Amino acid sequence: MHTTKPTPVGLWLSMMGIVMDHKWYFAERFEQKLPVPYSRYRALRRVEQQPRSQRELAAAMGVDAPAMTVIVNDLVKHGLATREPHPDDGRVKLVTATAAGLAWLDDVRSLEDGAPPLMDVLTRDERRELARLLDKLQAGQAGGLS
User: Fold this and answer.
1) Low-confidence stretches of the chain (pLDDT beneath 50)
2) Exposed, middle or buried, 81 (CB in 10 Å: 0-12/13-18/19+)?
3) 55-76 pLDDT, tens per residue?
4) Angle at 94 between CA 90 and CA 98, to 5 degrees
5) Which residue range or ranges hold the HTH marR-type domain (predicted)?
6) In angstroms, how far is CA 35 from the centroid of its own chain?
7) Domains, the chain, ordered by start
8) What's the Cα-to-Cα distance from 72 to each of 78, 79, 88, rounded to whole Å?
9) Cα pseudo-dihedral 89, 92, 98, 104, rounded to 10
């Protein structure tokens, strides 16, 4: 095992490596416990703070327009999001999380056994510190959530 270099690139590569190596662990458990695919969480979290167009969502998630339509249709069907015309351009559809969608995001984030076992190596204090640092990174990208 190598030691992470405390440079922006070194930290980024280590974070990406951990996430990419273990993302399916969570996705499988997620789909066992919840009635929709993991991609619905990925989309809904992107409209948690503010509405976004379907085009913006598709670009942020790296999916094409037809796939995004399927995802948004599913969110709307489950009452987790709404899709409304943009007030200034009716051709653009804005996706917004509903109150039920926001509650669902909280439920997902409270799943007890979704994280890979590697998270068990962190103490409670270390998890709090990691959460603080992740919140700081998320605040630094405000508005540009991809």
Assistant:
1) 146
2) buried
3) 999 999 999 999 999 999 999 9
4) 135
5) 1-139
6) 17
7) 30-114 (1.10.10.10)
8) 10, 10, 21
9) -160
Residues in the chain, overall count: 146
Q: How many CB atoms lie within 10 A of CB 8?
A: 8
Chain position carrying tokens 């590569």:
13
Per-residue pLDDT at 143: 52
Q: In 3D, which of 56, 49, 95 has the Cα closest to residue 72?
A: 95
Three-state SS annotation for the chain: CCCCCCCHHHHHHHHHHHHHHHHHHHHHHHHHHCCCCHHHHHHHHCCCCCCEEHHHHHHHHCCCHHHHHHHHHHHHHCCCEEEEECCCCCCCEEEEECHHHHHHHHHHHCCCCCCCHHHHHCCHHHHHHHHHHHHHHHHHCCCCCC
* The amino acid at 24: W
CA separation for the pair 14, 3 (Å, rounded) = 9
